[in-house]
UniProtKB/TrEMBL annotation:
It comes from the Bacteria. It comes from Tenebrionibacter intestinalis. Pfam families: YjbR. Keywords: DNA-binding. One of its GO terms (molecular function) is DNA binding. Gene3D superfamilies: 3.90.1150.30. InterPro entries: YjbR, YjbR-like_sf, YjbR/MT2646/Rv2570-like. This is MmcQ/YjbR family DNA-binding protein.
Amino acid sequence: MTNSELLPYCMSKPGAEQSVHSDWKATQIKVAGVLFAMAHEVNGRPAVSLKTSPELAELLREEHLDVKPSAHLNKAHWSTLFLDGTLADSRIYYLVDASYQLALELAPEPARRQLLGS
């Protein structure tokens, strides 16, 4: 998988907004102002940083060589997944979905209600 293949999936999430973090040379994807994915390159490899629970982050890092602590974000919650490695695309999509849900939980209540249609 490449960043250009992953970005449309991230942007298909309700309320997703894209911006560029020029210092990190990364594309940030947020919902209601809350970051849920950051697509970038690490040592020339396509990667995405996603938020999980600390327990899941630790488990993923133990099970997959292509999952590392994020260099720029809270390492307890944020992991960088190499898109061109051994992690299955379906697992990456699942983790994008989970990160999006965590971001929604942190979004302001009015924005969350509007996005969820309630």
